[in-house]
Each structure stands twice: as C-alpha cells, then as structure tokens.
Amino acid sequence: MSRILITGAAGLVGQGLLRLLGETQHEVIAGDIREPAFLPVNAAYRPIDVRGDDVAGAVSEFRPDAVVHLASIVSPPKGSTREFEYQVDVVGTQNVLDACIAGGVRRLVVTSSGAAYGYHADNPVPLTEDCPVRGNAEFAYAHHKRLVEEMLAQARATHPSLEQVVLRVGTVLGPQLDNQITALFRKPRILALAGYDSPFVFIWIDDLARIVLRAATEGPAGIYNVAGDGALGSSEIADRLGKKMLRIPAGALRALLALAKPLGVSRYGPEQVRFLQYRPVLDNCRLKAVFGYTPEKSSVEAFVAWKGSVGF
C-alpha cells in the first residue's frame, strides 16, 4: 500500500485513474480546483490550484509516496489566455516539482504530450523518445510541454532521488469524448493539406488510465511515448467516417487563416498549417518493451470505438 496524490483528478484521465485506484488499497488524495464527479472510498478530495502553494501544503501534510501530475490545459476554454495556460502548464508543474523535491516524494508521474516534439518538417517518422523535444513557440500547448520537459530534465540531473515517469501522450480518445482533434472529424469534410496525409496516433482512455496507474506504482521510471499501435492518415479517417476530403494547398490555407483569425471567423491562425503538415507519429516500442504495457487498442481500434460512441 502507498499514498498517491493526484493533481487534475477531476479531468477525464484523473477520473479513469480514480476508478482503477478504487479497486486497490492505496490511500489517495484527489486534487483539483473542483471536486471530481467520481471519488472512490479510499480517496479524499482536496482543493488544489497548481498555480499557487496548494500542492506544497498537500505534500507536506499527506506525505505521498507518488505524485501524479495531470493538471494541464489541453483544450483551452473560451476566454482563456496564453498567460493563464502558461501559469497552469509551466508554473503549475514547477510548483509540483518543487513540492515533490522538498517533501521527499519517491516518484513523480507527469503526463506530457507528443506535441512536445513539435511540428517540424525534419521530425523522424516515427518519433522515438530519444528524439529532441522542440515544441513550437507558436503553439502554446506544444511550447509549454517543451518547457515542462526541460525543467524535468534539469531535475533529473540535480535531484536523481526523485524518480520520474514522463508520459508523452498521443491524442486521447474515449467514449463520447470531444476535443480540438475530434472537432476536425465532426466537420462535413475532413480537412487535409495537398501532399500531406496528416497521420494521427490515438490512445484509448482506459489504456491511458492503466498506464498512469502502473507509472505511479510498480512500473519502471523513464520517458515513454504513449500511443496505440499504428497511425491513421486523414484519408483513412475520411473513409472510416464516410466523408469526403477537403484538400487545400498549404500556402492557400495559410493565407486564408491569416485573414480569418483577425476577423474572428477562425480561432486558428496561419501557424495551424504546421499542425496539419507535420503531425508527430509516436513510436511505442519502449512503452511495450521497457515499461511493460501493450495498449489493448491500436490507434485504429481506438478511433473505431470513439466513432461508435458518438454515433457516426
């Protein structure tokens, strides 16, 4: 039995993790700015805003063996600002890291993202964990995950007694889940750039929850890409949804978005072209061979399950 503190426990991944932890003997503190909808009997809710000193207080009082840091802004809410997202993603992670070091926590689990590699023309396909993390400055989420990974790397060098499990997660799919990626699939036609098939890698929510549980307990420390086997290009996604493709030259889309965003017609600017051109395709060999977990659903199977859950 061990003590586990979770940040972002009210989110989708946190809820899946709490359901699994409810079947164990671990003592759990479920931290978030709002109380989780589901809370097992072995978990207690604690209000935690990672932007301040809430985490330090919780670590000092609870003395957890492991901290699972899930709090992050994946899909910014309406009215969100980049400064707010930076405070949650980067400052929040620094606060969690500092609290773990000061409190003598044994293990820290952090959900990073495949976006941390960035959207670059020279990214290998697929990307392994040894590839550089180069999240683009023009993409808040990718850039913040890069900054987070840099601070974690520094901590591994200066505080090796704190074990780290860093999970570079692909696009998460789950029953009836909607996010910025699935919004693309709900359009009347599937957008793609001429000459690019924009491959996506997916991880099913149940697989991810089991991976995070293993990371917080008996799994080995390290950095791991988290995705199901394989990838789906935009053309295959369109076929599976029974939709037509909308292929636009990169230059034309860039010019269109440069006009549309200032007018408020689109939330995306011309930088979004790189997002479609250079999708990070994650190699999951280390997850299977070293971490010891093979996702039950491949990328295709996760997509098919999501498609069925939303009634396509």
TrEMBL record:
Residues 4-227 form the NAD-dependent epimerase/dehydratase domain. Pfam families: Epimerase. It comes from the Bacteria. This is UDP-glucose 4-epimerase.
